């Protein structure tokens, strides 16, 4: 059975979302769309001068994927809050897997509110982001 916001219980997992591989073109397009032209993300010479081996993905690009995981599952209208913390960089060529698990379910103002623990991981298991979403479930009985 597919878990939905209306049926979700503590411990249920959201269907994972995979994003990537992240290419240099992806970073250039994201820089243009977001207005974040920090050269650490798009200029190899700059990144190397800063002590990095290569450019790496914008943190907000990865954060957007966690938001996408939550809204693909619940819909934009049910998302009440989204918070994240960056824990590692996402290198060029990486594939991210975003996951979510319901950690809390309670009633608030006559509505069911779900807390969903979110995370993004690289293929080697490195966690690049962790976060939390508050999602509105169904009306309380």
Can you describe this structure?
This is (3R)-hydroxyacyl-ACP dehydratase subunit HadB. It holds the Pfam family MaoC_dehydratas. Residues 21-106 form the MaoC-like domain. By secondary structure, this protein is an alpha+beta fold. The chain has a domain at 17-22 and 57-139: Hotdog Thioesterase (Thiol Ester Dehydrase, Chain A, Roll). The protein is built from three helices and five strands. The protein has helices at 24-34, 44-49, 59-74, and strands at 17-19, 79-86, 96-108, 111-121, 127-139. A five-stranded antiparallel β-sheet has the order 1-3-4-5-2, with helices on one face. A hairpin with a 2-residue loop joins strand 3 and strand 4 (111-121). The protein is elongated, with a radius of gyration of 17 Å. The mean pLDDT is 93.
